[in-house]
Every structure is written in structure tokens, then in C-alpha cells.
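OP here, attaching both records as promised.
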Amino acid sequence: MKKVTILIITLSFVLLSCSGTKKTQKAITSGNYDQAFNFAVKKLTKDKSKYEKQVPLLKDAYNKANDRDLAEIARLKKQTPVNLKAIYNKYMSLDVRQDEIILLEPLYFEGKEVQFDTKDLSKDIAEAKKKYSDQLYKEAQPLIYGSKLEARKAYKILGDLQYVNPNYRTDLTTLIATAKKRGSDYVFVKLHNNVAAKLKDTASQSILKNFAKIRSGDFANKWIVIHDKKDYSVAYNYQADIYLDKFTAIPEKLNTQKVNQEKEIQTGWIYQKDAKGNVMKDAQGNDIKKPKMEKVRAEVTLFQQIKSTTLEGKVIMKNLKTGTSANPAPIKGEAKLENVYATYKGEPKAIDQKYFKVLKNKSKTFPPDSEFNKFALQTFKVKVEQFLAKQKL
């Protein structure tokens, strides 16, 4: 039995191995050399001896992929204009492929070590990176100080340059910052607090201190820059006037409601008797009986604790170039807590199922007014940020 089990396991490994080599061979035959290479590398990384049949296929895919990339580089160099980005990327592909082979070596097939041709590409890569970097830098230069859209294009080009060659020039970071500044729409945020007299608690004052400081890092439009303090070196395109207009605080109050409950429940059985007082029987000889019903009652008292704070206002966007203002966008920040609990008198069986949950609840102590003020201010500010984030300036 053990020999049969071992044979089955061995056959399974052989079948899996054959299936894997067929997949790699099919990819090579189809010209998908990278796919074949990656599949073989994955298998050999797991187990070199188990998947040694992948080794000659790996070499074939490696050689063909390299020949293809080198031929493509030669073709690209003859183009006018030369596609320097593609050339650089091809050299990087060659280098990465070589590194994967070096990490796997030594590789053996049928007891013999299989040799892979590798060469030092550092000079080729350095030359390709330098030429591509020079091209990006030269392309970005005239765009930085052009129109707003051109500055945005320069920002992207310089970002690509920084990714490819972060140490290309010492002025690269400064140029990126300049392109970002010139391509951005600047919005000055001004707070008009018309409810200051009602928000004097410490928590509210702490939030109001930086209320106009809006986070623009998460905005879908990365070209919107929000300032809460004026930078006179910047030409502002828009002004967002935030108005806190109406503050309403409803102190905690308790509403009560009594609900009468009534239900008929079975309390036993009533046996049917004949004229002589004997319990009657049915055809099967069983006692004839019917449920004994009784009406039961209860009184449920519902208690609703409620407390809320509401801050109402608006945001008005003003185009500083044209002097026009958009319609006010209403904003509301609210803090509201509600707790419902209940008690009862009478027979619990009379109570409707829907009241069971609140009967388990208890009275709660609500947070102080300052916490409600704080939450209302925070939700108001979040809605302001959401409104500004949606603006298509």
C-alpha cells in the first residue's frame, strides 16, 4: 500500500512538472518571452530540483527576451527623434532580468550547470539615464514660466525626472516647487464668525483658532492650494468666505410616553363535558378540549433623552480675477444624541416584541455642552472641506 501511495505522489509531481513546462513552452512559442521567463523564475524560486525541467526553458526565454530588447534598442536609436525614455526602460528591463538570473544561480539541468550570458550594463544604463534626464530637463524649462497649464505639464515632467534620476541637479527640487506654485489655483479662506459670543468654551476656542486652516492634500484636484493666512508673494485666484451664522443649542430634555399593552394569552385548557358532567371523548377516545384564554395587560413607559447642537452657515466662493461670487452654499454642522429606554408595569407577556430592546436600555449621562459644540464645529468644518474639494476651479 505504501509503494502505491509513493507511486501516486511521484506521478502527481511528474504531471505537475509536465504541466508547468508546457505552459512555459507555450509562452515561448507564442513570443511571450517575459511571461515564460517570469513563470520559470517563479517555479525555480520555489524548488530548483523539483522544477529543473524549467531551466533550459528559462535560458531560452532569457536569450530571446534579451535579443528582442537589444534589437528594439538598436531600432529606437535610429529613430528621429530618438525615444530616449523607451531606450532607458529597455536597458532597465535587461538589467532586472539579469539580476533575477544572478539571484537564482547556480542552476542545473540533468546534473550539469547551465550558464547564462550576462554583462555589465552599468555604462549603458548610465548613458541612457543621462540622455533621458537631459531631455526631460530641457523639455520642462520653457514650460515652467509659461501659462498655468504649461507649468502643470512642467511639474509632471520634472516629477518623472525626479523619479528616474533624483540626484540629476541640485536645483531640481526648487524647480518642481516653482512649477507647482505657478500651476496652482490659490484660494484664500476667510472666516466670518457671527456666533462668537455663543462659543466661548475652551474646546470651541481651540477649534476656532485654526478653523480656516483647510487640508487640501486629499483634494481630488491637486492644483487647489488653500491658505488661511495671506502670502503676499502669491496671486490669489479665489477667496472662500466661511460664515458661521446661527448657533442653536437644545439642552438635554426627557420626553415620556405611556403605551398600554393588552393581549390574550392561553392559561390552560377547558374540557367539554356532557350533561352528567363527564369529560367528552372524540372518535379516537381523546378528551375534547379547547384553549383557555385570558386577557392580560401592561403599561410601558417610553423615555426619550435628547440633546443637540446645530451650527448653520455658508460658504461663498469669490473669483478674485473677475470679482464675481457664486451662490452661497449652505453648510450645517450638527451634534445630536438620543437615547430611548423604557420601564413597564403589569404582565410582561402582554408587551409587544418591539419594546423588548428598549426595555433593556438604561438612562445615560450625556457629554457636557462643550463636547457638543466641539463636534458641531468639527462636522461643519469637514463639510466645508468636502465642498472645497469638489470645486472645479
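Record two, same layout:
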Amino acid sequence: MQVKEVLLLLTDHWADWEASYAIAEINSTGNYLVKTISVDRYPKISIGGLRAEIDYTVNQYQCFTSLAMLILPGGFSWGEHPYQEIADFVAKVHEASVPIAAICGATVFLAKHGFLDHTKHTGDEFDYFMEELKGQDYKGQTNFVSTQLVADNGYITANETAALEFAREIFHVLEIDTSDEIDAWYDKFKHGMIR
């Protein structure tokens, strides 16, 4: 099997914990290689102070046939910048039928740019979500579901408290293990090893 890439799209002050469960397991399978991508090559510092080097820029990346998934963790800067170049890249990824997974503030970014107008989705609380989208041309209100995670139309969306659910759904989409093994992994991390 060809090793495919999973791209972790980083912004300044990205939420390091939101994708941590997912990328650790994905990278350990041998079938996938996690790489970082951003608007430029400058290292991105997470909310927790982790400094991440950038492998690709969104304007440079063209290898969509070897791309298995794009993951967008949340972070403070999604609400501070329009990131049109990221929106253009997300559109290319979606056109290539590559799954896109977004959590927390990254779901608002997708909604801002119209990606979720016709897709069932979630994010943080609905009132907060709508406040963040005030003044934007968001048409997806009737598709918002108040739940931990929604998978629809090639998108996985999750709220900020759903890092484990986010990882589990990503694992199922990428088929990193059997469904039973993935669900057992989720159960262990969600409910503890010792009960």
C-alpha cells in the first residue's frame, strides 16, 4: 500500500490538544505520514507553546492524489484573519474528494467561507457559532447540529470538547484499524483503563 499524507494545517496559536490524539495514532500506523502545512514556512507556535516546523505552504502543495485527509485544528487566529489562501486550498482539497476534518474555531472558518452551507455540521455552542459569523454570508444555520461531532459530505466537524470523538471519526474514515479496535481505543481513552 502506498503511504499517503495527512496534512495538519497550522495557524498561529493553534490548539495543539485538539488534533493530538488523531495525529499520534495516524502517524504510527505506517500507512500514513502526518505533515504540516500553512500559509508560509515560518514555524507556528501553539497555544501550549509548542513550536512546529512547516513542511508545505498552501500555495505550494499540489500532491492531491497522495493526500488522504486535511485536518484543521482550532486556535485563536481563525477569528483574527480571513485566510483566503487557506479557503482556496480547502476548496482544492474538497474538489479532489479528500476528507476534511475541522474542530473548534476551524469549523467557524469553514462556515465563514461557505463550505458548510449545504453540509450537516457542528462547532462550539450554536449561539457562539452565530456570534462569530455575524456579518458573514453564512447560509448553513439549518444544517447546524448541536452535538459533539458530525460527519457529512466529506467533512468532519467537532466542537472544542470533542478531541476523542474527532480522532475516532478520523480513524474510521482513514480505516487505520478495524471498527472494533477503533471503538475499543475510544472507550479506553474516554472512560479510562481502570474502572
